[in-house]
Write a structure and sequence with these properties.
The strands form 7 sheets. An 8-stranded parallel barrel has the order 4-5-6-7-8-9-10-11, surrounded by 5 helices. It is α/β, with parallel strands linked by helices. The protein contains 10 helices and 20 strands. Helix 2 runs parallel beside helix 3. The radius of gyration is 25 Å and the shape is elongated. Helices cover about 25% and strands about 25% of the residues.
Length: about 425
């Protein structure tokens, strides 16, 4: 068989991705398109679930909820609550100047949640959780280096690199993000990254005026609490937050990684009027969210009535569980299935076009790569010689295989997928 030219032979074949029913295997690795979070096929998607409470270590730091960082809790969220995501806060430093981080203790707790989320096929936000103006760069570097290497092939992960920046401007937050993002990407991890915004992530509008430019798969955190500062000023606070969110949403993608039914302290009355209003806004704009928090800590905003996920729900927990199930019921399906293997620079999407000379490996017996007049092609193949390519099927369906081949004599070209013969062209 001589060099590839424009003569065409056509065979109709079926390439079917494996059938999965889980959220991540249905929608794949998240990405950004037109200032919105979309799935791996480019379909807009809204996710919803719970954030766990602080993980805490250190003397007298027993107020956290470490006991809930386990596989049984994640399975309950996925199967009973119908959560499409869960948030795992790696507690670092509190707003009242308490250091609660421990290596490897904190990381091991987060890994337990991540592993369980992967097993239950839901998304998981890995949250660098601190509330001050110092992101603890050395610890963050160690944490994200190890985590992004460990989970570089998992589409389930969403990286939240600074929960609530406090008393620090956007330029400093952006500088930190420009340091951490390459650490994650250098491990060949292409997952969605969420960057915190000024004033406890209340002001994404400030980020929208000068967004991250070193990476395109970046969203921005937005946090709200429905009864901020109590009932007397809740309307004013929420209207101000809405103005900031509306300014940002037309310029940058938002992700509500934390919100509460109460005031920001977790105490006080539930404000379901503003909770309903915000969740309607999130649905309209396709913004995913995680509610604070899956615990019986921190006041009325805690979703549990005890420290046990099976021990009953608070009034907030009952309300939020129903809202999570509403989001799950609205998830797009359409029978489309994504296979999301680790991508390489050589990966070709199917449906798509594979250039013969763009092989990843080539047999040494008779097939040659030739360049003529600046054009590279494959030429002079002998019996049994082969070329191999990496391809990714992005949706289930039947495909037409078209090959351009020239030969001085009769012969057969056989196409295989993972070792199985798809078609032979003569």
């Amino acid at each position: 068989m001589r060099r590839f030219i424009r003569n065409c032979l056509v065979a109709s074949i079926a390439l079917s991705a494996a059938s999965y029913s889980g959220v991540v295997k249905t929608h794949g690795r998240l990405k950004i398109l037109n200032h919105r979070v979309v799935d791996s096929l480019g379909t807009p998607i809204q996710l919803a679930g719970m954030s766990l409470y602080w993980s805490t270590f250190g003397t007298n730091q027993t107020w956290g909820a470490n006991q809930l960082f386990n596989a049984n809790v994640v399975a309950t969220m996925a199967n009973d609550w119908k959560s499409s995501l869960i948030r795992a806060p790696a507690g670092v430093y509190t707003g009242d100047n308490k250091n609660v981080y421990n290596y490897p203790g904190t990381m091991n707790l987060v890994k337990a949640v991540v592993d369980a989320a992967i097993a239950n096929d839901i998304y998981v936000i890995v949250d660098w959780h601190l509330e001050n103006g110092d992101p603890h760069l050395a610890d963050a570097t160690q944490f994200f280096t190890e985590m992004s290497q460990t989970y570089k092939n998992s589409p389930n992960i969403i990286w939240e690199i600074w929960n609530e920046p406090k008393n620090v401007g956007w330029s400093d937050i952006k500088s930190y993000a420009n340091t951490i993002i390459p650490i994650i990407r250098n491990n060949k991890n292409s997952n969605l990254i969420i960057v915190g915004t000024p004033n406890w992530s209340h002001n994404p509008d400030l980020a929208s005026a000068d967004p991250i430019t070193i990476d395109s798969n970046v969203a921005y955190a937005f946090h709200f609490y429905a009864n901020m500062e109590g009932a007397t000023t809740a309307d004013a606070e929420n209207n101000s937050a809405r103005a900031a969110a509306n300014t940002a949403i037309n310029k940058i993608p938002l992700f509500i990684t934390e919100w509460g039914t109460t005031g920001n302290s977790g105490d006080g009355d539930l404000n379901l009027k503003w909770s309903d209003d915000w969740l309607a806004w999130a649905k309209t704009n396709g913004v995913s969210w995680a509610n604070w928090s899956l615990s019986n800590n921190g006041g009325a905003s805690g979703a549990l009535s005890s420290g046990d996920v099976n021990g009953g729900l608070s009034a907030s927990g009952q309300y939020v569980k129903g809202k999570i199930q509403e989001v799950f019921a609205a998830l797009p399906s359409g029978g489309e299935v994504v296979i999301d293997p680790p991508a390489t620079p050589d990966t070709v999407a199917i449906p798509g076009h594979i250039e013969a000379e763009s092989y990843t490996s080539l047999s040494t017996d008779g097939i040659k790569s030739e360049t003529n007049n600046g054009v590279t092609d494959l030429g002079y193949a002998t019996n049994g010689s082969w070329a191999e390519y990496i391809a990714k099927v992005t949706r289930t369906g039947s495909y037409t295989l078209t090959a351009r081949v020239a030969s001085a004599a009769s012969g057969t070209v056989t196409f295989k997928w993972n070792g199985a013969t798809l078609a032979s062209l003569q």
